[in-house]
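hi! just following up on the protien thing from before. the input was this:
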Amino acid sequence: MSRVNSKKIKGDREIRADEEGRDVIEYPPSNQLDIHGWNIRKALKLFKNSNPPLYEWLTSPIIYLEEGSFAQQLRRLIPQFYSPVSSMHHYLSMAKGNYKAYLRDQNSFHL
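and the predicted 3d structure came back as:
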């Protein structure tokens, strides 16, 4: 049996992530919203592994809506789980991927 997490946004639109299937929550960009996230199981795994985007979201001064205490509880755990070395490896890997995909065989590139 598969459980689904969902949250209503603007009437009949829904954000859904299947816990046993797709673990990414995506809501197509519009003029008002661009929503991305993970189901709770994936978010906790990413937190444990010091995933930089999750830590950036948790420490951002910009919070549009936050209900409940889950995010605040994660923030209190950051000192126990955050690894600068993991973040360095994450961004180094992204830089290498971008270099291979966009720059390696280029004499010039667009900014």
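The chain has one domain: 4-82.
The beta strands are 4-9, 13-18, 24-27, 35-38.
cheers
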